[in-house]
């Protein structure tokens, strides 16, 4: 529930918005973006409606690209340190886990935290 007892979906519908689940193509775009940012030595700010799920998931993806294999726990810890209470979107993280060849380690890090 969000926004005074109204579900996220209910709020979106009441405001003329349609929520669509993230796709593997969406996550591929995040990975490509993170690689380009890394090449240029930049940073990124992720934002979604509440900054708790999809943006947190995108943050985990970016950190996963930047920090490399073996950093899965650190990726999730950093996102949760920056955004207390964040629950990275498992769909986003699952796609990233597969795309980045993490063998379930990104998902596992989210589930343990």
What's the gist of this structure?
α2 crosses α3 (54-67), α4 crosses α6 and α5 (90-99) runs antiparallel to α6. With 113 residues, this protein is an all-alpha fold.
Layout of helices and strands:
Blueprint: H1 8-14, H2 24-40, H3 54-67, H4 72-82, H5 90-99, H6 105-112
Describe the biggest sheet?
Answer: none
Give the overall shape, derived from the CA principal axes. Answer: globular
Binned strand content: under 5%
Unreliable stretches, pLDDT < 50, 5 or more residues?
none
Instruction: Give me the secondary-structure category.
Output: mainly alpha
Q: With helices defined by DSSP (H or I, 4 residues minimum), what is the helix count?
A: 6
Rg (C-alpha, Å): 14 Å
Helix proportion: 55-70%
- How confident overall, as mean pLDDT? 88
What is the CA–CA distance across the termini? 21 Å
- How many domains make up the 3D coordinates? 1
β-strand number: 0
Order of helices and strands: HHHHHH
